[in-house]
Amino acid sequence: MTRASVLIPAHDKPTTLPLTVDTVLRQSVEDLEVLVIGDGVTDAVRDVVADLTRADERVRFLDFPKGPHHGERYRHDAVLAARSDAIFYLCDDDLLLPEHVADLLDLLEEHTLVQSLNGYCRVNGDVEFFVGDLADPESVELLLDEDIRHNFVSITGTAHSKAFYERAGVPWDTTPPGQWPDHFQFARLIRHPDFRGATSGRMTALQLPTSEDGRDTWTHAEREAELARWHELVVGPDAQARIDEKVVAALVPALVRHSTAAVRLRRDVGLLRAEIDELRAT
After folding, report:
1. What is the mean pLDDT of residues 69-94?
2. What's the number of CA atoms in the CB half-sphere (13 Å) around residue 211?
3. At 129, is the pLDDT very low, low, confident or very high (cuts 50, 70, 90)?
4. Number of neighbours of residue 54 by Cβ within 10 angstroms
5. Number of structural domains in the chain
6. Out of 163-172, 182-191, 251-260, which region has the weakest mean confidence (pLDDT)?
7. More confident residue, 273 or 48
8. What domain range is 241 assigned to?
9. pLDDT-derived band at 270, boundaries 50, 70, 90
């Protein structure tokens, strides 16, 4: 029985995709599948995926033409094609630690939408946090507040049950202009009455976003080199312990920084709403 389905949207990253998929196939939960969702992939990506599917029957390729934006609609097709009720997400240039699927499967036994402790890797080797907890009503309230636009859920590191997704009736769709695909979709799920969220106490998914630390100017070779360094850590025998150490080192500064930011945001939004109410009254 397939216990987990890991969905990886792909377009033009042939150098990082093999490292990403490798960390899924190394999970402590072996009875899983990888669904690579092709959004008009390049020939180089198609060649890489062909090698991956030949090497391991757990890897499947859903080959679609280029769709609008990031091909978000195809993720709905992938969810429906999944052989498991546990739907996991992963970007094609991020990595999973070996216990990631096991951790979130445990959480999914009592919850409908879950995530790893969310954050990202810095170029200098440190980690940062997107502070928030899907089990905390105040965190969820901030995430859903359209005036604040606070987000602590990502594609990488998030999972939900397929049954919940189908009940919610809000399939993946093209992200409206000015919004983030992860926030747009997961906020729609979180608003459903059956939402029961949880955030793991461990960072088991490593994100290396192109929007941080100047990575947006890097070549494919530079991206591959950085991912290879983190991949070496991930496949090592003490991988989770080493990430846990980085998490502890970043924890207090992150909490102070984000608590201050949250207070400031609440103040600014309160002032804005007061101004709007005053204008409406005149």
Report:
1. 96
2. 3
3. confident
4. 9
5. 1
6. 251-260
7. 48
8. 4-246
9. low
Query: Angle of helix 220-234 relative to helix 17-25, nearest 10 degrees?
Result: 20
Please state, as a whole number, how many other Cβ atoms lie within 10 Å of the Cβ of residue 215: 15
Task: Note whether residue 251 is domain-resident.
Answer: no
What are 212's two structure tokens?
């941080």
Indicate the SS3 state at residue 178: coil
CA nearest neighbour of 84 among 172, 165, 162, 168: 162
Q: The domain spanning residue 123 has which CATH number? A: 3.90.550.10
Cβ of 125: how many Cβ atoms within 10 Å? 10
Q: Is residue 255 a part of any domain in this protein?
A: no
If pLDDT is split at 50, 70 and 90, which confidence band does 242 have? very high
Residue 130 has pLDDT above 90, yes or no: no
**In sequence order, which residues have a C-beta less than 8 Å from that of residue 84 and are 6 or more positions away?**
2, 3, 4, 5, 32, 33, 162
Q: Where are the alpha helices (DSSP H) in the chain?
A: 17-25, 43-55, 72-81, 100-108, 137-144, 162-168, 181-190, 220-234, 239-281
For the record, the structure tokens of 179 come out as 């919004």
256 located within any domain: no
Give the integer Cα–Cα distance in Å for 127 and 116: 14
The answer as to whether 259 is a domain residue is no
